[in-house]
Amino acid sequence: MASVVADNFLGSETPMAPFSTGPRRRIRWGRGLIMLLAGAYFLIPIYAALHFSLQDNNGNFSLAPIRAIPSQPGLGAAFWLSARLAIVTTVLTMALMVPTVIYVHLKLPRLKRAMEVITILPIVIPPIVLILGVLHASPLWLKSSPYMLSLVYVILAMPFVYRSLDAGLNALDLKTLVEASRSLGAGWLSTLWRVLVPNLRSAILSATVLTVALVLGEFTMASLDLWETMPVWIVNFSQTNAHVSTAVAMLSLIATWLLLTLIVSLDRSQSRRSRRRSRLT
Amino acid sequence: MQRSDTLTTDVRPPPSDVSGAVGGGRWSAPSLARSLRTGAPVLPFLLYVFLGLGIPTIVIVNLAFRTKSGHLTFQNIRTIASGGQYLLGFETSFKLALVTSIVPGIVGTALAYAIATSKFESLRRGVASASGVLANFGGVNLAFMFVATIGAVGLVTSWLARIGLNPWDHGFSLYKLSGVALVYMYFQVPLMVLVITPALGGLRPAWREAAENLGASSWRYWRHVGLPVLMPSVLGSMFLLFGSGFSAYATTEALTGGTIALTPIQIGAFLQGNVLSGQENIGYALGFGMIVILLLSVLAYALLQRRSSRWLQ
User: Fold this and answer.
1) What are B258-275's pLDDT values in tens digits?
2) Chain B residues touching A8 at Cβ < 8 A
3) What value of ipTM does the predicted structure carry?
């Protein structure tokens, strides 16, 4: 989705200052009502989908759809394809973006504005339009490989990844870090790998999370490029058995959420530990 | 002489700052070469963007103005503008995007405010991360969730039917525009919450206190202080939501199987080969139209964002 500004995605460690309005203590019905409605709107569909995926064809409660998942034809292949695409996309994105964004921050701050504009362009040219041009422009050898999708996903991920890395770098005293590292005799690669990347861990993690989530959920391009990734499989298979299809959709959703929470909590505990360590010294 | 010459070339000026170290530029080198060398590490990125985004865009814009045999033409644009299904597609997409930017814009702002002023730290954090996930959540899983919820045999449908209010008997269909709009809210509202929350932080408690000390009611505070400050951000974010709603393809495609006439769906149909003869390049013209509209809405977003940013310092 076009959430350009979803930059503080998960790593929103600094919530806005709670501007409680002083000594006013009246009950605020409006707030309670809107939270209740929003809660219902967002939670009921999840509940309904889980409910639906635990039914047999007669509408009775059954674990059969879940049990049937592993034996579905094509599911394994679709999952493996999605996983490979996610890995390739993430590696490519990071290899391209991390050094570039660091370099721009360090040496060419004048380019920051241009980078912002460039990385917002994938919003202007959405997947459905981009794939039009890509399918027409790319050579046959590229078009016949699923990894062409990875190459385009890198572009789709750019808005999120750039903003995440940009925010991370703004929080660092980059120049001091680099000068310290260089004056201690580290080369550029070693500065990048042993000083900057560890300091940017949070930003890189949240960028990774965004990229992986994007690749695992992307349907538009994969379906029009005729590759059966997970989402494409789910849609195709819903013709055969909607219960199993919904069960897979919900499972993949839960798995993605778990993955995201796991990565974020790993990061939280890590940063807490390092904070404690720095307090001790 | 010879010796001193080699000596001077050997003794390079020490790098005055870090940039000398990486650029390696000699002071005697022409500045063009130096700036090229300084810029070189950004080149792979620029090249990638050019290949992955620039060329496809050029191809689309070019083909939008070509006949099948490659002659320059305005016929594709004229076909769209003269009415019929393609213009209808733009109209429907526009309407859908408008509804799914205004309603979630208002709801999202109210929700973001309710959350931001909440006493519960964990609620704030939970909603922030949930919005991040949900805003990027769309497409297939979302469509399936809503079919199970308010599809013809969905859970909520059966609840409502039990009290005699089956929405399907009263003209509602998940596979028509109203249904699709209902589904879009699921990612548009969280997107609004994400985008607007930083702007809400610009509303300083001191302003509210000052207004109250001067005797302003809650309504007057919002009318004269709160809303004017927030307005540019809210409007700007709505433009962003508009773009997101306008270009969404996966959700509608998975939900309706392409039976609804939206421009993204028509482009999809074009790519799948469903196109009349004589209109072979109409898909590119549709894409070109979408680019123009999205460009305008992103520009509006950026302008309003800049205007609102002065309150956020």
Assistant:
1) 888 899 999 999 888 877
2) 128, 132, 194, 198
3) 0.81
